[in-house]
Amino acid sequence: MSASHDHGHAPANFNAAFAIGIGLNIVFVAIEAFYGWKINSLALLADAGHNLSDVIGLVLAWGGALAGKLRPDVRHTYGWKRASILAAFINALLLLVAMGSLVWEALHRLQSPEPVEGVTIMVVAGIGIVVNTATALLFMRGREKDLNIRGAFLHMAADALVSVGVVIAGALALWFGWTWLDPVVSLLIAAVIVVGTWSLFRQSLHLLFDGVPESVDLLQVKALLESLPGVDRVHDLHVWAMGTSEIAMTAQLVMPDGPAGDAFLQNATEQLHDQFDIEHATIQLVKVPFTVPCGGPSSS
Fold it and tell me: Smallest Cα–Cα separation from 122: which of 184, 175, 73, 83?
């Protein structure tokens, strides 16, 4: 016997946010590349290349979100929900690589400080603050419950922070002639961003290998199932993420007095949903377990 909770809680639609964010950032990359070429600023040209990676990151996140909504078929019975986890992982990886290149450039400039390219760089960086902040705000409401959306949010918020640092460092360098300030601020910003991104990288990698989502305590799930009337023990419990916004569970409940009916299954499924946000629960009821458990604290 099995039960699957109603999948009516679909993830929020961020299509408009992705379209606007990608459009804004493409325009900004064009502006930055043009002025970098016009004033012969390697810094602006390099940052234009970095912001182009933002566009790629947003496209990846959007693709992951769209793929996750494809309906299951006979070849992919869960659909393509895991694409959103993969997109979050790649986004985190891209951001870490971008920060690595930023650190490398900053260390190089500490050894050979270069004069700031004046007001033009500050103005362009100011535009970057507006564009990246506006794009990040588009994804703010979804960052807590969807790892893929969180990846897009962190990517854009990180770039807004970088632009703020460029403006501040540029202003102070112009006023006081501190050419060393720009790379120092870049190193500090990179450190802050890496700390924030590492969690996204770790969580997405964990979910890619069917790890239990951080929002779920597996022992508490087991305790809930064992507390249900007539349940002697839980056999072979598994909880994993189908995507960045949907959790699945399978379990075999040992009931020596005989399996219960649909009301029991409905109650169990609703409690799993309400307490752990498990959207897709499949429960097998048996008098005697007949499968070999995979091991771990959830198997008995």
Answer: 175
Domain ranges of the chain: 15-208, 218-286
Whose CA is closest to 216, among 278, 145, 284? 278
Contact 12, 139 (CB under 8 A): no
Helix and strand numbers (H, E) in the chain are 8, 3
Q: What are 196's two structure tokens?
A: 């924030």
Q: What would the two tokens of residue 121 be?
A: 């760089």
Q: Which strands sit side by side in the sheet containing 233-241, from one edge to the other?
A: 233-241, 247-254, 278-286
What's the pTM? 0.72
pLDDT, tens only, 188-242: 777 877 877 888 899 899 999 999 998 899 999 999 999 999 999 998 899 999 8
| Short-list 30, 14, 13, 43, CA closest to 131 | 30
State which H helix or E strand residue 18 sits in. Answer: helix 15-38
CB 242 within 8 A of CB 10: no
List CB contacts of 19: < 8 A, sequence separation 6 or more.
Answer: none
- Amino acid identity, position 132: N
Residue 251: HSE in the Cβ half-sphere, 13 Å Cα cutoff:
32
How far apart CA 266 and CA 272 sit, in angstroms, is: 10
Q: Does domain 15-208 have CATH number 1.20.1250.20?
A: no
Tokens standing for 216?
């779920």
3 state DSSP class of 235: strand
Considering the domain delimited by 218-286, tell me its CATH architecture. Answer: 2-Layer Sandwich (3.30)
The one-character DSSP state at 144 is: T
What tokens appear for 174 in the block? Answer: 């112009």
